[in-house]
2OG-Fe(II) oxygenase (Dokdonella koreensis DS-123), 242 residues
Amino acid sequence: MADDFIEVYENAIDAVTCQALVRRFEASGKAVRGATGGGVDTQLKDSWDICIDDYPDWQDALNVLNTAMLRCLMAYLRKYPYTALAPLSLRMPDGAGCLRMLGADDLRAMPDTLLQQLAVKVFRPGTINIQKYLADQGGYPYWHCELYPKVGDPGGETLHRTVLWTVYLNDGFAEGETEFFHQQRKVAPRTGSLLIAPASYTHTHRGNRPKGGDKYIATSWVLFQRAEVLFGAPAPNPPAAR
């Protein structure tokens, strides 16, 4: 079977931690109606969300989730090295002090410490939402992707997204899958598993309605570092001659 670029990493976060995040969500009183890029529209997305980046007291949860994401992203890069190599011509010093172009085999064979440094150099984490979908009501039925131009986003942050990721914080309900349109694939929630897939239209997807129980997820994106960070700010133009 051909690769579909959808990867699921089981037990990325342990069940005890997942349960603690669900309890914390319920006790926080901070959940608001989930929004899409165009705002709140429950016909498109019916959820209750907390953007945990907005709250300093959730910093420990951010660290746990982003650590799990980075670990799985490294595995994803080993399988799909062109996630980093196709957009960027990456080079590293060789033994002679010259810069050598990296290829797919280089990334696959790279030690974990070096690959992690490369991943942090090239990518950055997005804001994390913890979301609740009510049983027999909630869902994200609109077929959508994660890469789009957004009003009020002059820096094009939504256009910097390269992959999406989701951690399923619970299971024990029917349906509620993440369904991918073109790949004709449904990913069933399993507590602690982490899903990674490309952010673009090729991986148009939706979140199916959970039946018989509420569904909780933590979800975000991996973004490219901004060009100014990757390549340095451009030199200012010299004054025009008179």
Notes: The first helix runs from residue 15 to 28.
